[in-house]
């Protein structure tokens, strides 16, 4: 089954704005999940790591925002994933 996870692990932003370190975000858990799924023979498990994305209106930086996703690229991935079935 195709699985895709997105993350924007801007650790400097998390430290300065939220007081979280890298271990408090879900970035490590996502990496572990993809590795585990691949170890269980799911070659369709992937993690997309973005950089410099994640903004909320009116341009406020937030790497936890869905704007980290490239929407046309994700739509294409979904179409391909549905054809995989």
Describe the structure.
Helix content is 41%, strand content 16%. The chain has 85 residues and is of the alpha+beta class. It has one domain. The strands form 2 sheets. A two-stranded parallel ribbon has the order 1-2. A two-stranded antiparallel sheet has the order 3-4. Strand 3 and strand 4 form a beta hairpin. The longest helix has 14 residues. The chain starts with a strand and ends with a helix.
**Which sequence of strands runs across the widest sheet?**
1-2
Tally the structural domains. Answer: 1
Shape descriptor: flat
Distance separating the two termini = 8 Å
How much of the residues is beta strand, in percent?
15-25%
What percent of the residues sit in helical stretches (DSSP H or I)?
40-55%
Secondary structure tally, helices? 3
Structural class: alpha+beta
- Count of individual beta strands: 4
Helix-strand string? EHHEEEH
Mean pLDDT: 92
- Poorly predicted ranges: none
User: What is the makeup of the main sheet?
Assistant: 2 strands, parallel
Whole-number radius of gyration?
15 Å
List its traits:
85 residues, alpha+beta, two-stranded antiparallel ribbon, 41% helix, 16% strand, flat
Gist?
This protein is of the alpha+beta class. The protein has three helices and four strands.
Ordered list of secondary-structure elements with their pairings:
Layout: E1 3-7, H1 11-18, H2 27-39, E2 45-49, E3 55-56, E4 60-61, H3 71-84
Parallel strand pairs: 1-2
Antiparallel strand pairs: 3-4
């Amino acid at each position: 089954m195709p699985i895709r996870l997105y993350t924007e692990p801007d650790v400097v932003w998390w430290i300065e704005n939220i007081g979280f370190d890298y271990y408090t975000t879900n970035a490590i858990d996502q990496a572990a999940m993809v590795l585990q799924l691949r170890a269980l023979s799911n070659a369709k498990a992937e993690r997309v790591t973005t950089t410099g994305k994640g903004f909320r209106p009116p341009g406020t930086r937030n790497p936890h925002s869905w704007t980290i996703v490239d929407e046309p690229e994700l739509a294409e991935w979904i179409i391909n994933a549905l054809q995989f079935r």
